[in-house]
Amino acid sequence: MAVENRLKTKLAAGELATSMIVRLSCGAEIAHIALSAGYDALYVDLEHSPLTLTAAGHISMSAAALGVTPLVRVPGLDAAMIARALDAGALGVIVPGVGNAAEARQAVESALFPPAGRRSITTSLPQLHFRPAGAAELEDVNAATLVGVMIETAGALENAEAIAAVPGIDLLHVGLHDLAASLGYRDRPPDEAVMEALAPVIAAARRHGKHVGIGGAGTAGPLLAALIDAGARYVSAGTDLSFLLAAAGERCAAVRRLFDGGIRPEDHNARQ
After folding, report:
1. CB 164 within 8 A of CB 213
2. Selected catalytic residue, list 32, 48, 129, 211
3. pLDDT at residue 189 above 90?
4. Nearest C-alpha neighbor of 8 from the set 203, 129, 143
5. Best exposed site among 35, 42, 193, 217 by fewest CB in 10 Å?
6. Active-site residue, 32 included
7. Helices (H), 133-221
8. CB-hemisphere CA count at 13 Å for 234?
9. Rounded CA separation 1/235 (Å)
10. 20 close to 239: Cβ distance less than 8 angstroms
11. 133 with 141: CB under 8 angstroms?
């Protein structure tokens, strides 16, 4: 049975893919929530959370079984961590801190089995339901593995063409918060400045058959709409933590509005 990465299939078809960042939930239930909410993918964020690799593996296996593509954002360009995240069940990695083509090649080599890469061969993989893996099976795993690198520094912008040209790179994922800080902005830059900065990235990705992801652009504003129109197809819509906080805040405010717009305690007492 071939390994399926529905996210890669959807991106290859030019469709829009939505993703949830997991920073709070440590159980398999978040995969079911992602499915019910309509997400195509999720990524467990080991860079900006205290979640463990064990939790990432359990979430990844649950998500894959449901058809939600599981990715892991590793803490950095670390071959051992990239391999372990994939060995735990992820169908792809997002690697932060990549600033040039040499580092992008390191990411690919760490994520893929020989001859495409240098990942250490193991015969017990969740992606294969722990069946014995031969050369053909490992080729299937390679084909299903998504390798994404973060574009989040001025240096990465300058080297976007060379990064996009690296064989094995699938996704150039733009982190707008860190990128803005790297460019000297203390607050969110104007939309026009973002579009100008990212135009070469999107163009380079298109020339080399790669995909562009966007994180930190919000969910419904004109900036995100413009980036999608320009060619971005992988959208990180937010974190489980931010979703929980936003929904909890809205519900709390709704309950308070019932009181503020309704009968006051003194009105109720006057009617007794």
Report:
1. no
2. 48
3. no
4. 143
5. 193
6. no
7. 135-144, 154-158, 160-164, 176-182, 191-207
8. 33
9. 29
10. yes
11. yes
